[in-house]
Amino acid sequence: MNVSLPLDQEAMRINSLEQHWMPFTGNRDFKENPRIVVRSEGMYLWDHHGGKIVDGSSGLFTCALGHGRREIADAVHRQMQLNDYSPHFQMGHPGSFALAAKLAAILPEPINHVFFCCSGSEAIDTALKIAMAYHRARGEAQRVRFVSRERAYHGVNMGGTSLSGMVRNREGFPVTLPNVVHLRHTWLDTQRFQRGQPDHGVELADDLQRFCDMYGGQTIAAVFVEPVAGSTGTLVPPQGYLERLRAICDRHGILLVFDEVICGFGRMGTAFGADAFGVTPDIMTMAKAINNGAIPMGAVAVKDEIYETVTDAAPQNAIEFFHGYTYSAHPAACAAGLATQELYEKEGIFERAREMSDYFLDAVWSLKDHPAVYDIRGYGMMAGIEVKSDGAPGRRGTDLQKKMFWDGLHVKFTGDVGILAPALVAERAHIDEIVDRFRTSLDRHVTA
Ligand SMILES: Cc1ncc(COP(=O)(O)O)c(C=O)c1O
User: Fold this and answer.
1) In 165-247, which ranges are E strands?
2) Relative to the CA of 160, which ligand 1 atom is closest?
3) 14: pLDDT confidence band, cut at 50, 70 and 90?
4) Cα(122) to centroid(ligand 1), Å
5) Contact criterion met (CB below 8 Å) for 262 and 228
6) Which has the least CB within 10 A, 35, 278, 299, 374?
7) Whether the predicted model's global pTM rises above the 0.70 cut
8) What is the DSSP string of 345-400?
9) Cα 6 to ligand 1 centre (Å)
């Protein structure tokens, strides 16, 4: 298929869509009616017909500072001219140390050590291995079980697929890690339209105690949860839930891992979900907004004790942790990360998100009266709007995501839930535009 692009994009002319096997996309359907983004800037994307699309999900929760930030592009450009790539095994470059220090300064104490990788999925695999290495180093190699949660999304590598609580993401891949058990998810029908943390459902955390009773707490290595389950449609933890998980982990020597890939870097109105909910995990995974989505990057941050236990267990001149990626701490990704973190600081982005949250959630909750809306959930600068199913779960959501694009709105849908998470630099007018377009699209496309 020949897709015509605006003249200034001639150089990027596409002669065929066929060869690219696209991720998480209905390839045949897409290639019949492609949605090609040729430019992005600030709160907007532009398609190949010149249509202007307001970005309601900051890309994929990546672009907290909006698109096309000059400072990030310049930093990457400078870095690529200075040192485009140098290996990160047995040698280093300044950017990774500077970025790790910058992150440590905003991470909760005593989480001060950062391992870099290239995505959220890799961060999850890395965290699984760190948990194993830590327990082994402590002489507790019998901890071979992992706990995740229904409706969890932890990426798509084999570790994340094993932890996945999203059925479609695991059902086609029967060979996953053994010994993974899932807590119940935290959404209850009785919580519908509750804003912020639901006032009931804390007892769902007791599933973890039941697993300890059933399997022996001393056999469980780690529990993985997203502070707010993002990709499944914004499931906000009930009041007291994360605290209870923390207490059970402490009782049984289990590591608590927060997957902050979506929640991190201001989305919750604080640096991390851990700060928003006042619960400090042992390990945190992050990616996406770590460098505004500019260059693939992920990271795992751990408590001092974990880093020290693993490194001290090996002889002085030995590699302590047999893990790493060719592109771990890529110089360009680090440069983008440093520029991004500086902008977060300089522009007070996390505070801005906290201040804008009420306005954003008010705007989203105004959709409550729409006959197509089944539920709304939200916290900070993220909200899930669940539309009524048409009988086939997910069909309406998939259809709406495509139609909204042509209506000038980008929203990430999972199943029948549209997840609004605008850039944290959004003005009130942008939020109004996003919510108005969402309503208009519902009016236009949902008939029953
Ligand atoms: C909570 C969470 N963990 C992990 C991932 C995987 O990240 P990536 O797509 O960068 O591998 C995602 C992606 O959406 C996520 O939301």
Assistant:
1) 180-183, 220-225
2) 4
3) confident
4) 9
5) yes
6) 278
7) yes
8) HHTTHHHHHHHHHHHHHHHHHGGGG-TTEEEEEEETTEEEEEEPP-SSTTHHHHHH
9) 33
